[in-house]
Design brief:
It contains six helices and 19 strands. The chain has 338 residues and is α/β, with parallel strands linked by helices.
């Protein structure tokens, strides 16, 4: 049975496994939100070193929660050499509602970092991770899927960083998931969990391993593989790196989508018709989709053209799109670090 505790009472030092339900006071009910957190500590644990894996930063993304739930049963305490922190459901309110934002305050947790311990519930969750967990780990794996926002070519992801060793470690960790694509994306969005971690010098990775509020079995498998591989390679878990069950190392591509030109936006509301699939290679100027306006049913659709050579990383999941929504993104192929 999991122990009910306050956030400040998490124990990251004592040897063994501890399964917690961490309490966060509810703003109106006489009660609390309960976040499942598991901490495993081995005999070789070092200060400020460990691995954190989180699922359901967005509540409509399910590969992460399912993969980490499997790992709760798979990882044995006696095999843990360092420190591993597993949170299958981080955004407990959004997960229960099946929504991207927290329904209690309307805030997107992945725009709320570093958070505020005296703020609304979403801000308090961000503060909990930033203030109480980040100091005990050096690897942060935030497992995402597209939810209802976008369909992705399954990928691991990170931001470009100036420190070469940090960048090299993030590339190596990304490749451990076995995705064909690794996405290097823009770092202008405020409040990202992965940005908060990498700003502290951590090996910080995200993923996009599914879409459509569904469960992709390949995405679950990739998440499990990536977390276990990182834990072993980073000295937190004893054992042999699991076999790559997905894309061979030699066929993996690093795609840069950080330039704003990589994203095609809907300039008007309408219905999006893709003409290519996620993961397809495209050439500059190639038609990758159409935007239809059914209020002007006799007008031709707007052609959406690839901004450069590359691969299609994502597309809008729903046919109906809003003004300003990213409906296709094309990443440029770049070299891995040597």
């Amino acid at each position: 049975m999991r122990s009910l505790i306050e956030p400040e009472d998490l124990d990251f030092e004592r040897l063994g496994r501890r399964d917690y339900l961490v309490r966060f006071e509810h703003p109106s009910l006489w009660g609390a939100y309960l976040m499942p957190v598991t901490v495993l500590v081995g005999a070789e644990a070092e200060p400020e070193r460990g691995l954190l894996a989180t699922g359901s930063t967005h509540g409509d993304e399910y590969e992460g929660p399912v993969a980490i739930k499997h790992l709760l049963r798979q990882i044995r305490a006696e095999d843990v050499t360092g420190r591993i922190v597993l949170i299958p459901v981080l955004n407990v309110m959004a997960f229960k509602a099946g929504s991207r934002e927290s329904p209690d305050d309307g805030v997107n947790l992945n725009r709320a970092f570093p958070g505020d311990r005296r703020g609304t519930i979403t801000s308090r969750l961000a503060d909990f991770i930033q203030r109480l967990i980040f100091p005990h780990v050096h690897v942060v794996l935030d497992i995402h899927s597209g939810g209802e926002v976008a369909r992705f070519a399954l990928n691991a992801s990170f931001h470009s960083v100036h420190d070469r060793e940090q960048r090299r470690a993030m590339e190596e960790t990304a490749r451990g998931f076995g995705t064909k694509f690794t996405m290097m994306y823009q770092n202008l969005s405020p409040g990202l969990l992965t940005s908060a971690a990498e700003n502290l010098g951590k090996i910080s990775l995200g993923t996009e391993l599914g879409w459509g509020r569904a469960l992709q079995p390949e995405g679950v498998s990739m998440a499990k593989q990536g977390i276990l591989t990182a834990a072993i390679r980073q000295g937190q878990l004893r054992g042999v790196v699991p076999p790559n069950r997905h894309c061979p190392h030699a066929e993996q591509l690093l795609l840069d989508s950080s330039d704003p030109s990589s994203s095609l936006f809907a300039r008007t509301p309408g219905h999006f018709e893709p003409t290519v699939s996620c993961g397809d290679q495209v050439e500059e100027g190639q038609v990758v989709g159409y935007l239809h306006d059914f209020e002007r049913v006799d007008d031709p659709p707007v052609e959406l053209l690839a901004p450069h050579d590359g691969c299609v990383l994502c597309q809008a999941w729903g046919a109906r799109v809003a003004t300003g929504q990213i409906i296709t993104q094309v990443g440029k192929s770049v070299e891995w670090m040597r």
